[in-house]
Every structure is written in C-alpha cells, then in structure tokens.
Amino acid sequence: MKAIVVTDQTAGTAGMKLAERPEPQAAINDVIVQIYASGFVPDELAWPSTWTDRSQRDRTPSIPGHELAGVVTALGYGTSGLSVGQRVFGLADWYRDGTLAEYVAIEARNLAPLPGDIDFTVGASLPISGLTAWQGLFDHGRLRPGQSVIAHGAAGAVGSMVTQLAREAGAYVIGTGRAADRQKALEFGAQEFVDLDNDVLEDVGGIDLVFDLIGGDIGKRSARLVRAGGTLVSIVGPPEVRPVDGLAIDFVVESDRAQLSEIVQRVRDGRLRTNIGTVSTLDDAVVAFNSTTRIKGKAIIRVRP
Predict the structure, then answer these.
(1) Domain spanning 128-250 has what CATH number?
(2) CA–CA distance, 40 with 16 (Å, rounded to integer)
(3) In terms of pTM, does the model score above 0.85?
(4) Rounded mean pLDDT of the chain?
(5) What beta strand segments (E) does 64-171 contain?
(6) Cα maximum dimension of the chain
C-alpha cells in the first residue's frame, strides 16, 4: 500500500516520503480500515511516540497521522461492535503506525460510526480537534453555564472547536490570536478577540477557564488571568506558572467513542462546524506539509476520491 513514512526525527516534515509499505494485519480486538481521509498535526513529529514504541525501542520507518475516516474491511479475533463495510472515524493509537496510508490497523474501541450524511473529509477533521476541545472543557475544565473562557488560538482547528463547544455550553468566550485571525475567530463564535501582538492580554480581567494551546510566555501570563477557583487547561505540557488560587491541568487527548458520537451529531445538526484549512491527496501530501504558506485550520489528506 502507499503510505507516508518518516525515519529521521531531526528532518521534520522535510523528511517525509511517499513509500510502499505492507498492508497491516488485524490483531486481537483490531479492525482494518480502508482510509478515505486522514488528518495530520505537524507537532506529532516531535512526539516520542512517533519514533519509538512503548518500550522505547525504535519503530521507524513509521507512518504518521492519527485521525481517520474510512470503511472497515476486516475484523480481528474477538472484535465486536463494528462490522465489515461500516463507515467509521476515530483516533489511532499514538504508538502504532498511523493514518497517512491507504489502510490502518486500529483498535475497534478507538472508532465510532460515521453517519452516511457526513463526508469522509469532515469526519477526518474531527477526532483530535473535537476530542481535545471536549475533554479540555468538560472532563478537565468542568465548564459550567455562565462561566468565562479564553480560547487561545481561536482561529485554529482546536481553538475553533473550543469556542463553539464553550458557547453551546453557555459560556462567554474570548478568542485570541494574530490580528489576521480576528474575523475567523469571531465567525466561529468568539464574543471578543484579543490580538496577542497588539492588545494587552491582561486587560481581559478574571477568567474562569483558560484553554492554552500556545504555551511559552502566553501560557505564563495566562495563569495570572485565572480567577479564584478557576482552571488553566493546557495541551502543550505542564504549565510553567500556576494560578494562585486555581487549578492547572495538562492532558493528552484520548479516544472516546461516546464523545466522538456526540461531536459528529453536533456537526449533523449544525451546532458545530469544522475548520478545514487544506485538502490534499496522498501523492501530494509531502509537498503540502512542506508549504511555506501557513495552514489555517486542519490539514486533511484525501486518500481515496
């Protein structure tokens, strides 16, 4: 099968290559999915799990990509809950070969049914962005109606999901980003926008929940925005500065079938919009990932027409 592979951690996306790889086999509780569309997060090339297995042994050449939408073609021994021919989407294990390929072997529990009226491209854009926003807001941030939220990077794939889900939950949302991101952040539901290059972040006052997708100096300054009893939620590692009278939480997103189903239902009924930046073919993926133009939104690879 055709797949994108990486072997050199120092090369970044420039080290990606289109290659022929053996088709995967289904282990116990696995399914094989013929991939129609795949999502990609460039940061994953810095994750240890892209390069080693759980025992820290080198596993290159590895296939990156962890979001997928496709059709089940085979079931491993003991697999239940899915059937051959079923449309699915989900989030692949970090330590296994991923989804920038024509087929993937994946644990059935990491997949959810993809309704027939949702395009594969849309399905592949949802797992990381949607689950990260959902788990950060509700599982870790314990968001309640009437609270205030800062969504850093509000025009990005995750930030726009944070904004929409927080608004639906009854929160007041302040988006942040570059000046050029203002209109997009507002279109996705932010009620205010802070230009991190020109506005004073501290002017927003006390916030119940800060969702940090940026880290660094912005993450440090964000801790001081959290009011007593509030929460700083980070997906970029443990916060370097913690709120004085609040919580600081960092987490790694996990697959969850029930949450995926909740997210895709919101897309079906119009409560949630995806934020897709570019769509490329598998043959053109390496060029697309190495573009000098900033990708605004989720990068999607359409593996099959």
Answers:
(1) 3.40.50.720
(2) 13
(3) yes
(4) 95
(5) 67-75, 87-91, 103-107, 111-113, 148-151
(6) 57
